[in-house]
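YM 10:42: Biopolymer transporter ExbD sequence, as discussed on the call
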Amino acid sequence: MAKRESPEINAGSMADIAFLLLIFFLVTTTMDKDTAYLRTIPKKVETDKPQPPVQKKNIYKIAINSRQVIQARDSIIPPNEIESLKKRIKHFYTVNRWKKSDRNIDYPYYSYGSIQLYNKNIEELEERVRKLDVSDNPDERTEKLIAQSQDAIGKWKEKLEKMKLYQKFSGKNEIPEIAYEAHIRLESFLDTDYSAYVAVQSEIQRAVTELRDEEAKEIFGITYTTMNNFYQQKKTEDTPKVRTYREYMDLIEVLFPLKLIEVEPKR
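YM 10:58: structure's back
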């Protein structure tokens, strides 16, 4: 009796099976919400230009050593007092808010925008574009300057719309913006316990969320968290409420931005 030839396994089928298993793993794998933190990872910025040094007052440095002791700027926070970190971060954001003089020189300064200022900046840039755009065949440098100016006009117009919204609901003619360079810097070591790292991340998020909630409640009569929860559930729906909440949240995020730089762990 002749032996039957064993069927050869199709390589393409094996690849399909491997792909389906990968999808299954990605879909069924979950993270523990009690220990994980959710935050948008910033895009890597590629630039050849050396960045100017950031003034010390604009940095809130947090370091976690191998014994899980936290150093927040010049203060030592033992692990059992980590909740005090939230109050310190809120102070970093607010100590100089609405101060144009007698400011604390160890913390970020604020600038103050207005409808008049933003309109003036837009008009000056538009005039610059008109003066540059006089040739039918501009050189590369001129084209670059025009593009940069038009990009700046777009950004100033966005700020203008946020200022109008802020004025409408707050009744204030100026909008406070913390120094652009102001940020939180988180440093750790390779042997830093992961739970301590996550706990610090959570306190940072809590501090900024509380600031946003307080500001949104004062301006719009509803917390940032409430709007964000609704938005996350309904963001695929193009409804007036979804668009309004997104607009409100964008303004609140300008007033209290979360800029977090995570430094590569040290040995």
